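Figure caption, in words: inputs first, then the predicted bound structure.
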Amino acid sequence: MSTPLEISGNTSVCGVIGDPVEHTVSPAMHNAAFSALGLDFVYLPFRVAKKDLSDAVQGMRALNIRGLNITIPHKVKVMPLLDEIEAQARAIGAVNVIVNDGGRLKGYNTDAEGFLRTLKEQGVAVRGKTAVILGAGGAARAVSWALAEAGAALIILNRTPGKAVELAGDIARAAGHPAEALQLNAKNLVTALERGHILVNTTSVGMSPETGETLVKRDMIKPRHIVVDIVYNPVKTRLLQEAEKAGAGTVNGLHMLVWQGALAFEKWTGRQAPVEIMHKEALRAFGGK
Ligand code: NAP
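Bound structure (NAP present):
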């Protein structure tokens, strides 16, 4: 538990809406950041069922909530409820941050930029590389868009191949960048990794409690690969453990979580986010694992 905040009638309220939200580390991360900068802000988790999303967004206006993070399952359905959507979020087709300016709600997507900041911070070059993306869900949309914008060629593999085809088509239209789509199976994965430099897992495979699971066998991974897992619970997934043993470079999902949060923080407060403090607090909220 962090130190209790001094809450007054002037305190600005931010939070996250999703279902479930019980395990979110965002309150720990943001409240530590507000406190470090001496800002009169507080961040709270709100469990909002699908059927209540519209009321929750209307409530954000009524209660003058300054900012919200949007998480599973609301990132797409929230879009028509907003007054304005930033071009990048519209191109990606998902919103994970809302800013409330006097009752006018604007939606953003900081997952994409958060992913790119992570790669930059970790020294991973993207331009001219081939990225192999596992998954075609909401997070895959942001990651694919970011990688395409940054100049990578994409190979998207998904268990449901139609969704990979749809995402590849959307990327080609939005980023003006061709992307390949394949069914996720061992044969296609081996072929893709022979050509790929960066492997990104955007599926939920390996996430707690199924921590023993991975879609990629160790012998498919080579030392020249950089393996990024955006799953952050646990911080070191089975995939990252296997990648390490194979001699590849690895990047865990906590970095992206922290960066998407830091970019949201900056939109709500207008201040530069204390990224190191946020990272430390997020890690601590996971019990330092
Ligand atoms: P989503 O929209 O529900 O998409 C889930 C994806 O995982 C789909 O492509 C799905 O394939 C695939 N999948 C699920 N189970 C699978 C299995 N057993 N075998 C193969 N593929 C499987 O979820 P999301 O919002 O994209 O989130 C995905 C993960 O990313 C979650 O673990 C989430 O916590 C994480 N995430 C991390 C960050 C961060 O900041 N680090 C940000 C966003 C999300 P089908 O299409 O075939 O169902």
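DSSP finds ten helices and twelve strands in the chain.
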